[in-house]
Structure formats: structure tokens, C-alpha cells
């Protein structure tokens, strides 16, 4: 009979071949489910596939930012540096994909455009931009929290005669800035990581900064054989601590509150975290992100360290943030960032009170009338974070309701995993989960494991589908909000709050209670027989 019009039927469709998607495919396939994966890039890697700007590097130590599910994988792979560069992470993810033969389940260079629930069968009809149509029992999104780039709508941008780039869509062949006058707009992680390297290559660099950020040197270094051997011997304990920790790496805050210890001990603790490098500084003491005075102490130590790296006091004044407590936006992990402003060919332009008014053929015009001539402009202006990549797929649940509409006032999930009205739909390592505040490799494994257990539970008990109840969603949304409101996190205009995107609702999207705490919560839900979810019989 002619089956050409019948969609291919599979158990699971997984969208995305980043760290989370790759593991979900591997894990579910291992349980015997038929799985089809789709990825819009032409290779694995997700965020690491797209963000190839110079200096792109992970801010979680490489030994920790790697899969833990296979002992021989973690014993055999050799990281060359404490903090891995983007090319090395890509090599690692390609190795994982090849070693576990994950690629055969994926179709690359293909975007999923829609997923529609059939309310009769509770199956999902998934369509791609390659014209494929599939029928899937489970629809699993692993589309990334930082994969929908944001370019601010600056008037005249299309008239610029030179090249423009976005750090999150960097040309795969690389860019040569030799001899050029370059402008970088944005001083988040991507700007701060790329600025030192662009400055070394370009004839001149102008950095356009709206808000200053807190950045801390990575303290990056090559790993020699002895260091690697020691790390690998300690892997079991490292992972155990990471799973209990707040951020998915094996570091615990000082046991006491900031102002309970002596000045000497406090400085020693800050110094120790400073040496560890980068983002870990946000959790030196347990009260650093909940208590203003504690945060001020951490901030003052930071400021003293950073001012010592900058020659010009006026430039230093511009580079010290005054608008948000330290750690309420992700602390950037840099290599030579502040020292870059000591170079003759680098200029910092503060946009507060002197915004970019327009871009024209020759460069950038500021509100005060100055025109800065440029040959290339780099947008390091970030992402429509956490919901942007979900929003661009037309997801229709019960009653034909669009997920985008259901989330219009902010994402509404139960545990980050379930959405009411969208049975058998799972959005992994997204809003409602701690993934963006944690080591996303372990977060991806945590969700992959939970999902695998969940599907097995459904099948063992003869259920067709699982759906979060509205009551459970309401409870989780409230819990995520209340936990964030009890911290200083609400006081920064961060992408955690959607504050970087004009018109986006101001809702704190991640679960801020910690990676370990969250892991316990979702494990308890599974152990209880999935309380808060409705299990739907066949
Ligand atoms: P971020 O952290 O969102 O940084 C974007 C930067 O771009 C930030 O400095 C913004 O200033 C700036 N920006 C955005 N729009 C404008 C306009 N219209 N004018 C001037 N400046 C602008 O993105 P990244 O890619 O650096 O990092 C994302 C995450 O990747 C990071 O948190 C790590 O987890 C890894 P603002 O602060 O909004 O004033």
C-alpha cells in the first residue's frame, strides 16, 4: 500500500544537538525508544557551534563541564586547559557524538518549525523546514537558553558600509580584523571575552558600553599530565559534590555568613575564590546573593582588585558597575579584559547619558554629536534568553493553544519539565530549572535521567501520557518567583529577568534554589509517582 503520505512514526523527537539534546538522544535510544533528532546547525554543539567569536571559552572548569555518565569517557578524554576554549569543547562534543554513534539519530541543517498535539491520540505532529512530517509520542525540546540572538534595532544599521557580526552567529571561517577600525557593542560575557583578542588584532577598537559588568580573571592555565591524573583519580568525589552543590561544580561556599567572620578571614576567603577564578566568586559566602551588606563586602574586594589593573582612573570609574549587586548578572570570566583598556589602540565609550543615536554608512553616531568612524561592527548584544528559541517554533497544545501565548506573561512550567495543556512535551534545561545558573552539562544529564525514568514509568504502568496539572504549574511559578524574590537577583536588569529584550515580561525565569536542591525536588516528585502530574491511561 502507498504509505508516502503517512508521517514517520517514532517514540520521541528531540530538537537540538547541544549538550542536553545529545545526551537525551543517547539515553532514550539506550532504553529502546525510537528517536529522531533535528538540529538546525550542520554539526553537533549547540551554543558552542554558533558562538565561535575570538576568545569564546567556558566559565566552568573543563574537568567539570563534561559528561559524567560514562566512566571510560571521563577517564579517556584529556582537557588541555583549566577552562576550555570553544574549539576544544567542539572537539569534545564531536568525540562524544562519534563515540556513542549519536549522529545517526540526527538530521542536521534542519530546523523543526512546528509541533502540534493531536488531542485524540495525544501524539505530536512535528514538521521541519526540510518538509518532513513525523508523528511522535513524546516531543522533547533541547533548544538552548542562549540560542536566539538579539540585535538591538539601532536606526540605520542596514546602511553601514562595513561588515557587521553577532558573537552568537560568528562566521565559521573566522574574521580577520587586521588593519581595521572595529566597534564592539556590548560588554557581557561575549564582549568581555572577545574584546582583548580583537584589540590585539585590529588597528583600533572602540568599545560601546551601556552597563559595566563584574568580571574576574579566569586564572586559566594549561593542564599537564600530573594535573589531569589527579583530577581523574578524584572524579567520583568531584561529581558527588557537584551534584549536591548550588552550581553543579564541586565547590561549597564558606560555612559562615560574610560578616560573621573576621576581616582577615573574610579577605582570605575572597582571595581564595578570586584565585579559583571567574563565576565561582559569586558564592564565596552563603549570604552573598541574599544580603546587601554581604554583597557590598564582596563588591568592595572586587573593586579594589580591578582598579589595580586599570591605568586610567576615569576609565576605571566607567568600568565599575554601579547599577547592580555583584553576581546578580552572571560574573564574567575573563582573560586580560581590564588590562586591554591600558592599550593605546582601545577606547571605551560609556553610553549612559550618551546613547548610540544611529549607525550610518561610515560608523556610529552618538547622542552628543560625536561620530566614530568604523570599518566593522561586532554586536555582542546577547540573546532573547530562555524562551526565544522555544518561541520561534510553533508549538500547539490542547485546543490548538500556542505555547508562546500560554507563556505570554512569562514561562509557566512545573519543575521546568512539564507544561499544562502540553502533554508529553518536555522542554529540557530551560525556564523553571536551574540550568543557566549551573553547569549545563550536568543539568542536561539530570534532565535526561529524569526523562528516561519518567518514560519508563509510563510504560511500566501502561500510561499513554503525562501532563503537569495547572495547580502544580501555578505552585512552581510561585515557588520560582518567591525564591528569586528572597535574593538580590531581582535588582539587576539581567536576561534572567528578560530585562534585556524590549517588551519582554519581567519574570525571573530560572529556578534559583540551587542545582542540588532542585535535583532532590525532581527526584522526590518521581519517587512519589509523579505528584503534580496527571498520568493519562491508554
Ligand atoms: P549579555 O550578557 O546579555 O550581554 C549583552 C551586552 O550587550 C550587555 O552589555 C548589554 O548591555 C549590551 N546591549 C544590549 N543591547 C544594547 C543596546 N541596544 N545598546 C548598547 N548595548 C546593548 O550577552 P552575552 O552574549 O555577552 O552573554 C550571554 C551569556 O552567555 C552570559 O551570561 C554567560 O552565561 C554566557 P546591558 O547590560 O543590557 O545594559
Protein model, in words:
The protein is an alpha/beta fold. Helices cover 31% and strands 18% of the residues. The chain has helices at residues 19-30, 47-50, 71-76, 86-99, 189-201, 225-233, 235-244, 263-276, 292-307, 313-319, 337-340, 388-391, 403-406, 440-460, 470-485, 515-527; strands spanning 8-15, 35-38, 106-107, 112-118, 123-128, 133-141, 163-166, 181-185, 204-209, 215-217, 332-334, 346-350, 356-360, 363-366, 371-373, 376-379, 394-396, 425-427, 463-468, 533-537. The strands form five sheets. Strands 1, 2, 3, 4, 5, 6, 17 and 18 form an eight-stranded mixed β-sheet that branches. A hairpin with a 2-residue loop joins β13 and β14. α1 (19-30) runs parallel beside α14 and α14 packs parallel to α16 (515-527). It starts with 7 loop residues before the first strand and ends with a strand. The relative contact order is 0.14. The mean pLDDT is 97. Bound molecules: ligand NA7. Ligand NA7 binds at residues 146, 152, 167, 185-191, 210-211, 330, 351, 380-382, 495, 500.
Main sheet properties: 8 strands, mixed
Share of residues in helices: 25-40%
Which class of secondary structure composition applies to the elements?
alpha/beta
Shape: globular
Q: How many strand segments?
A: 20
Give the topology, please:
Elements: E1 8-15, H1 19-30, E2 35-38, H2 47-50, H3 71-76, H4 86-99, E3 106-107, E4 112-118, E5 123-128, E6 133-141, E7 163-166, E8 181-185, H5 189-201, E9 204-209, E10 215-217, H6 225-233, H7 235-244, H8 263-276, H9 292-307, H10 313-319, E11 332-334, H11 337-340, E12 346-350, E13 356-360, E14 363-366, E15 371-373, E16 376-379, H12 388-391, E17 394-396, H13 403-406, E18 425-427, H14 440-460, E19 463-468, H15 470-485, H16 515-527, E20 533-537
Parallel strand pairs: 1-2, 1-6, 2-3, 4-17, 6-18, 7-16, 8-9, 8-16, 9-12, 10-11
Antiparallel strand pairs: 4-5, 5-6, 13-14, 14-15, 19-20
Helix pairs in contact: 1-14, 14-16
The site of ligand NA7 has 19 residues, from helix 5.
Amino acid at each position: 500500500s502507498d504509505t508516502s503520505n503517512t508521517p514517520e512514526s517514532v517514540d520521541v523527537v528531540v530538537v537540538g544537538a547541544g549538550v542536553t539534546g545529545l545526551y537525551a538522544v543517547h539515553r532514550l535510544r539506550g532504553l529502546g525508544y525510537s528517536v529522531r533528532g533535528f538540529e538546525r546547525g550542520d554539526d553537533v554543539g549547540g551554543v558552542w557551534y554558533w558562538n565561535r567569536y575570538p576568545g569564546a571559552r567556558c566559565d566552568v572548569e573543563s574537568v567539570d563541564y563534561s559528561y559524567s555518565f560514562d566512566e571510560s569517557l571521563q577517564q579517556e578524554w584529556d582537557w588541555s586547559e583549566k577552562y576550555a576554549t570553544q574549539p576544544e569543547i567542539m572537539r569534545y562534543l564531536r568525540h562524544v557524538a562519534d563515540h556513542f554513534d549519536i549522529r545517526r539519530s540526527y538530521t542536521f541543517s534542519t530546523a523543526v518549525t512546528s509541533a502540534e498535539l493531536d488531542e485524540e491520540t495525544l501524539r505530536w505532529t512535528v514538521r521541519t523546514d526540510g518538509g518532513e512530517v513525523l508523528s511522535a509520542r513524546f516531543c522533547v525540546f533541547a533548544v538552548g537558553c542562549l540560542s536566539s540572538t538579539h540585535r538591538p534595532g539601532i536606526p540605520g544599521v542596514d546602511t553601514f558600509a562595513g561588515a557587521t557580526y553577532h558573537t552568537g552567529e560568528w562566521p565559521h571561517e573566522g574574521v580577520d580584523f587586521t588593519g581595521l577600525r572595529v566597534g564592539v557593542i556590548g560588554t557581557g560575557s561575549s564582549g568581555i571575552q572577545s574584546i582583548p583578542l580583537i584589540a590585539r588584532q585590529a588597528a583600533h577598537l572602540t568599545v560601546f558600553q551601556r552597563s559595566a559588568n563584574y568580571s574576574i580573571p579566569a586564572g586559566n592555565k594549561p593542564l599537564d599530565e600530573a594535573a589531569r591524573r589527579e583530577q581523574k583519580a578524584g572524579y567520583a568525589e568531584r561529581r558527588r559534590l557537584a551534584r549536591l552543590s548550588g552550581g553543579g561544580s564541586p565547590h561549597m561556599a564558606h560555612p559562615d555568613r560574610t560578616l560573621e567572620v573576621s576581616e582577615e578571614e573574610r579577605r582570605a576567603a575572597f582571595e581564595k575564590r578570586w584565585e579559583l577564578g571567574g563565576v565561582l566568586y559569586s558564592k564565596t559566602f552563603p549570604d552573598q546573593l541574599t544580603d546587601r551588606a554581604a554583597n557590598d563586602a564582596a563588591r568592595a574586594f572586587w573593586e579594589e582588585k580591578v582598579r589595580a589593573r586599570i591605568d586610567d582612573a576615569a576609565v576605571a570609574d566607567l568600568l565599575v558597575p554601579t547599577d547592580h549587586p555583584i553576581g546578580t548578572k552572571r560574573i564574567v570570566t575573563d582573560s586580560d579584559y581590564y588590562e586591554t583598556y591600558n592599550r593605546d589602540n582601545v577606547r571605551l565609550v560609556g553610553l549612559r547619558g550618551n546613547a548610540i543615536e544611529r549607525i550610518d554608512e561610515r560608523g556610529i553616531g552618538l547622542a552628543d554629536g560625536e561620530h566614530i568612524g568604523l570599518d566593522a561592527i561586532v554586536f555582542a548584544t546577547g540573546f532573547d534568553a530562555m524562551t526565544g528559541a522555544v518561541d520561534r517554533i510553533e508549538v500547539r497544545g490542547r485546543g490548538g493553544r500556542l505555547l508562546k501565548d500560554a507563556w505570554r506573561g512569562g514561562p509557566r512550567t512545573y519543575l521546568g519539565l512539564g507544561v499544562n495543556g502540553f502533554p508529553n512535551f518536555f522542554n529540557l534545561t530551560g525556564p523553571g530549572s536551574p540550568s543557566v545558573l549551573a553547569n549545563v552539562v550536568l543539568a542536561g544529564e539530570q534532565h535526561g535521567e529524569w526523562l528516561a525514568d519518567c518514560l519508563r514509568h509510563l510504560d511500566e504502568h501502561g500510561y499513554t501520557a503525562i501532563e503537569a496539572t495547572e495547580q502544580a504549574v501555578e505552585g512552581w511559578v510561585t515557588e520560582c518567583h518567591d525564591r528569586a524574590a528572597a535574593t538580590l537577583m531581582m535588582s539587576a536588569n539581567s536576561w534572567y529577568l528578560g530585562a534585556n529584550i524590549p517588551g519582554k515580561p519581567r519574570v525571573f525565569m530560572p529556578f534559583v534554589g540551587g542545582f542540588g536542591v532542585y535535583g532532590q525536588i525532581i527526584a522526590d516528585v518521581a519517587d512519589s509517582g509523579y505528584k503534580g502530574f496527571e498520568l493519562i491511561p491508554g
